[in-house]
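Hello Y.,

Per our agreement to keep a running log of every chain we model this quarter, I'm adding this entry. I've kept the format consistent with earlier entries: sequence first, then predicted structure.
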Amino acid sequence: MADPYQTLGVARGATEDEIKKAYRKLAKELHPDRNADNPKASERFGQVTHAYDLLTDKDKRARFDRGEIDGDGNPAAPFGYGQRGGGGGARPGGGFQADYGAQGGGDFSDIFESIFSGAQQRGGGPGGFSSSFGRRPAPKGANVPYRLAVRFEEAAALSPQRVTLRDGKTIDLKLPAGVESGTQMRLSGKGDEGPGGFGDAIVAIEVGSHRFFTRDGDDVRLDLPVTLAEAVLGAQVRVPTVEGAVMLTVPKGASSGKVLRLKGRGFHKKGGERGDQLVTLMIEIPAADPDLTAFVEGWRGKDDGNPRARLGV
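Predicted structure for the entry above:
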């Protein structure tokens, strides 16, 4: 039952960004892929992941800070349970007795008996209480970490992913909107078995790079080669996207570096919308074309502008 703050090495007042930064540093050091011969590192990775999950859940973090749950996320023992003194006390036989001062006393055993009716018939302890009352639940098994490599275009399109667990079973995962490298998905009950049940499987996502697409936040960028004729005269050209090719209009007189936008062809956002694909035109000039050379030489005298003037040169 470790303190999640101590596990991540952060202060109790740490911000979410500080917690995330600490987790990423530890996860990189302890990841099973880098510690194949070190089972303790894998166990530590699971502990770090569990601490991160608890502290990034605002409700659980608040409950832990108030002492309502422990570092494992289990309910803490009821306040004052098992203590003696104060206004009441434990009495032989397992019941509880409260004092009412000078006006006399009262026995709460009847009230508890009505609340916990049948406890003795179900194997409860003396006084009508189950022998497990107030005890911490048995711990679940350890969480098991997995790494899932996802292709760039499949992450952008949120294509379903199949994960093979170490027991040989497979599960189809639906990627969440906003997925990126470092995103974690929890599979409840797919971890190791323990006295209190199975732990969870923690799947860490790694989005691969692409040979011509790059990611810019929720947008996808692409450098698109076009011919001189397509740039000068305008054209309809085929453009690859993460979900197949589409037609794009190149406007007349387009220059290299001009950016055209394909709406809704990027990554899915957490809010439900989707990013765009930003296409940067790159004019390709054929090498050693005699006709083009002759044309430019004859046209050069008409070009009296300086496209570098705005750069101060």
